[in-house]
Amino acid sequence: MSTTGNLEAAREAVLAAIDAERDNLIALSKFIHANPEVALQEVKSSAACADFLAERGFSVERGVADLPTAFHASKGDGRPHVGYLSEYDALPGVGHGCGHNLIAIAGIGAGIGLAAALPHVGGRVSVFGTPAEEAIGGKVIMARAGVFSGLDAAMGAHPGTSEAAVPYLEGSGQALACQGVRIAFHGKAAHAAADPHNGINALNALIETFNGINALRQHIKDEARIHGIITQGGQAPNVVPDYAEGSFLVRASTRAYMQELVDKVRAIAEGAASMTGARLTFERSEEPYYDMITNYPLARRIKKHLDDLGLQLPDPKVEPGKGSTDWGNVSYEVPSVETSYPIVDRVITWHSKEVVEAADSELGYANTLTVAKALALAGLDVLTDAALRAEIGLAFERERAARA
């Protein structure tokens, strides 16, 4: 059992370790920022992060879940076990317009901080390098492979505007489940003027699918979304299209409702095929994104430590999710929080050159390191407070069961 003296020594060790690595963490972030690499090509960034942790005594496994640019670094052993998630992929044509160079050092800094407390309190800490957040969702693949299994808590941070906040209020921190769908119709080509009666119009089938989805929208829950585009619709106006294809995204507040809507979209497409005589190909994306189950007891600890460290943030908005994140799949496996925090003093457009500048700013680095401290201190709470672990676990099981 941890004594009061041990806890105070552990807390001091956490803060001192992050302070001691301040310049090194900023240099690592600047390297990632100056060498933007898109999803699954984060060779330099991943290696730099993994090497950084290995040089500080972490045991590092590279290429986890068959993802060459993913890694798992750990220190300590047994339970409790706290994990921090880092990202480092950039946006094509933009660079680090989502601030993933800061996400990288938030997780690494927190991991190094908590590792410094292990001699005082025991337990285990892991840092996970999670690639391709902006594309296929590396965390989805890693969660499916069981990489996060056994964690008592998973935490990470995402930079934002002046409105960024810790999702500690019930109903905040939401994200939509999301499933990609490819719908293709195979028809029969014919001359559109001279011989249309011998053709089967694949494009008509796809258009009727859009019409059916438009009708369905009247009868779905407010937070659900179905959107799509025509990716192929024929080659010439005087030829009956023998092939047409569309790409769709189906989003909903829970993965269960998302799958219900996907089934309804499939039924619409089957009806369109029956109406037109075209043959249907219906394919779900291999890896759907799940909705986000934010663990509020854990988020409240992060909020408390940020307040104590002097980073006062606004209350989070309590509203349905609008986007989707691969964090959702992690949150169905282990208790999870991805907190947000500001790197600018105003509201700006995300995924932009303004964010690229903010991600390499004094304010960005200062707030990121403060957040790393708060995450590490929340991790210390998880390692040492059995009642908190029970509360976190109960909230996780209750919310996951409610969304089944």
UniProtKB/TrEMBL annotation:
Domain Peptidase M20 dimerisation positions: 180-271
GO molecular function, one term: dipeptidase activity
CDD domains, sorted: M20_Acy1L2
UniProt cross-references to InterPro entries, sorted A to Z: Amidohydrolase (IPR017439), Bact_exopeptidase_dim_dom (IPR036264), Peptidase_M20 (IPR002933), Peptidase_M20/M20A_hydrolases (IPR052030), Peptidase_M20_dimer (IPR011650), Xaa-Arg_dipeptidase (IPR017144)
Keyword Ribosomal protein attached: no
GO biological process: folic acid catabolic process
Keyword terms of this UniProt record: Hydrolase
GO cellular component, one term: cytoplasm
Family of the protein in this entry: Belongs to the peptidase M20A family.
Annotated protein name in UniProt: Peptidase M20 domain-containing protein 2
Organism per entry: Sphaerobacter thermophilus (strain ATCC 49802 / DSM 20745 / KCCM 41009 / NCIMB 13125 / S 6022)
